[in-house]
Design goal:
heterodimer; B: about 160 residues; mainly alpha; 8 helices; globular
Chain lengths: ~160, ~160
């Protein structure tokens, strides 16, 4: 950088204008206010709770669907026979997973996010998807399909950048 | 880390860094009031997240992301800033105290630098960040940071040469 020594020293002689006198006071006030509300739950925590709640709800719905199929599968042949005419052959209702697709139709980088109690920021990426799960009954050829929209928020560490 | 206990230290650090931080923020907004708002938001965010006081790269990255978030959030402001930048043919000029004609010429030459070169120059000269810190703050490689710095100085020298 020796070639640039003269221009660097000229640049260093330029002094940036001082910020306004009340900036420090404003920052100090903001810090005091934040200290006071340390125990208040912040809006972003609410958002995360709502996301967790939505994800739990979706998971519960899927579990309920499976439980419903298990219930039918666990029926003894006697039970099935008692509910169907004697001449009719019992039809197995075992569905097996046949496929799952996930279509990402929207993805947005929401910039830096500062997780609580973390030293480093992470990048928050929100994606909206349409997911489809399929089951098939190999005996009867019947199929079942469940589709639902989903929204995911991923936090990508910025380490190494 | 107890932020309340170290508030005096934070004040000292802020007083030291404030002019450089505001200068850095002014690359994205035209008015010094907006730049100060950005610095305030970023500094408080940085403090609230209990970052280490000496992690300057992260502090500058926070100022940068706060400025970009502000512009993204406020489309009217963004349009205004873009129009202002277009009018000036380049992005926003930093504010300096100038004593003589040669310094005013230097400031004018700075205004003509491409934004990506000037932000490296601002971080290096007036904030005394290392190339490693600049690279981390701007999410670029150290070589790129050093190259932009070199290009900026070359452009300034060329600009200031007598015709």
């Amino acid at each position: 950088m020796n070639d640039f020594g003269d221009i660097e020293s000229e640049l260093k002689k330029l002094r940036p204008a001082r910020p306004s006198a009340d900036l420090l006071q404003r920052i100090e006030n903001a810090i005091v206010d934040l200290s006071a509300e340390k125990r208040i739950i912040r809006p972003h925590q609410f958002r995360l709770h709502w996301l967790s709640f939505g994800a739990s709800l979706a998971a519960a719905a899927v579990v309920l669907l499976f439980l419903r199929f298990d219930f039918h599968t666990n029926m003894t042949p006697q039970n099935i026979a008692s509910q169907t005419p004697a001449a009719t052959k019992p039809v197995p209702t075992t569905f097996i997973p046949a496929g799952a697709t996930q279509v990402v139709y929207h993805m947005r980088d929401e910039g830096l996010y500062y997780p609580a109690d973390s030293e480093e920021p992470v990048r928050r990426v929100r994606s909206r998807t349409h997911e489809t799960l399929q089951w098939r009954n190999p005996t009867t050829g019947a199929s079942l399909q469940v589709s639902y929209p989903a929204e995911r928020v991923e936090f990508i560490p910025m380490s190494g950048q | 880390m107890d932020n309340v206990a170290t508030r005096e230290q934070w004040k000292t650090v802020f007083c030291e860094l404030a002019p450089g931080l505001v200068l850095f923020a002014r690359q994205w907004v035209r008015s010094s009031a907006d730049a100060e708002d950005i610095v305030q938001d970023a500094f408080v965010k940085f403090w609230r997240r209990h970052h280490k006081i000496d992690n300057r790269a992260l502090l500058y990255a926070t100022v940068r992301s706060t400025a970009l978030d502000l512009i993204r959030r406020d489309s009217r402001r963004a349009r205004r800033e873009i129009e202002a930048s277009a009018d000036a043919d380049q992005t926003i000029a930093p504010e300096f105290y100038t004593d003589d004609e040669s310094q005013r010429a230097l400031v004018s030459a700075l205004e003509r630098l491409p934004n990506e070169q000037r932000e490296v120059l601002v971080m290096k000269i007036w904030n005394e960040l290392t190339f490693a810190e600049i690279a981390q703050a701007l999410e670029i490689s150290q070589n790129t940071a050093a190259s932009r710095y070199r290009y900026a100085l070359t452009a300034l020298k060329k600009d200031l040469q007598p015709q």
